[in-house]
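Running co-folding for adenosine-5'-triphosphate.
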Amino acid sequence: MVMTPAIAIRGLTKDFRVSGSSKRLRAVDDLSLEIHRNSIYGLLGPNGSGKSTTIKIALGLVQPSVGECEVLGIPSTNPAARTNVGYLPEAPYFQRFLTGRELLKYFGCLSNVPKEKIQGRIEYLLNRVGLEDAGDRRVGGYSKGMLQRIGLAQALVGDPDLLVLDEPTAGVDPVGAAEIASLILELKKEGKTVLLCSHLLSQVESVCDRVAIMGRGRLLIEGSVDTLIQEEDCSSMRIDQVSSILRGSIEQLAKEHGGLVSSPSRSLEELFLELANKKEER
Ligand SMILES: Nc1ncnc2c1ncn2[C@@H]1O[C@H](COP(=O)(O)OP(=O)(O)OP(=O)(O)O)[C@@H](O)[C@H]1O
Ligand SMILES: [Mg+2]
């Protein structure tokens, strides 16, 4: 049996009406992407480049103008596409008067977590997102980072196969952000797929298998992180126990053949800025 992708997006365009005018704003422009199962996929781009809109369309929360999406092999227009998906929206709105524990119980019920398992699942998740001491406090009193953490626990409560996390580390302190990164890696080890939007590029570089960078609704580049950060016409090799003599000989040989020995890899951040600046020049 051929495994369908976790998310397939084909020819997606979304125009929003600009309020108070007859103009339209193209938030997503002819976007096609495939996100393979059991991978961590980063959707990147400057503010307003169409990432959250793409996610909302894939999850059936916003209607596309043109194009189609499938989630776990089911068209996004079918609510069944969302049954095995956990979603952390970019600006989650939670019932302020519920405590963290109550909130997870509520979302656990919505996600059909069996009654006898819910309590254990709540305690496990509060621990996993570092909120074990705040579980009985009302969500209305949570700090920004705490709201992100409870939002992440909410996305995980039904133990879904696909997690869509729109800026899970926004407002989270560096230690918390590192914990979330290791949680995402653990989720992949458990066989899950994670689609992640984040502006923390160094973290994206360390956790994602593939990334897509968007600019003004369009796909600017897509590929595996290793390939994208490898500079063109450069190759890297690892040579252990390099003596200065060996290095000198290699450099000499490269020079004789018109080459240059240097450190070839750039960071994802450098690539992102290069693409974003190119976009500005247009
Ligand atoms: N409901 C809406 N009505 C009108 N315009 C919208 C709506 N939602 C998004 N847009 C516009 O679509 C464009 C893309 O927005 P989107 O939220 O997808 O960007 P983003 O890449 O997620 O940005 P950020 O990094 O700031 O979260 C923006 O210009 C935004 O103002
Ligand atoms: Mg967004």
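Result summary
The first strand starts at residue 7 and ends at 17.
The CA atoms of residues 148 and 168 lie 6 Å apart.
Job closed.
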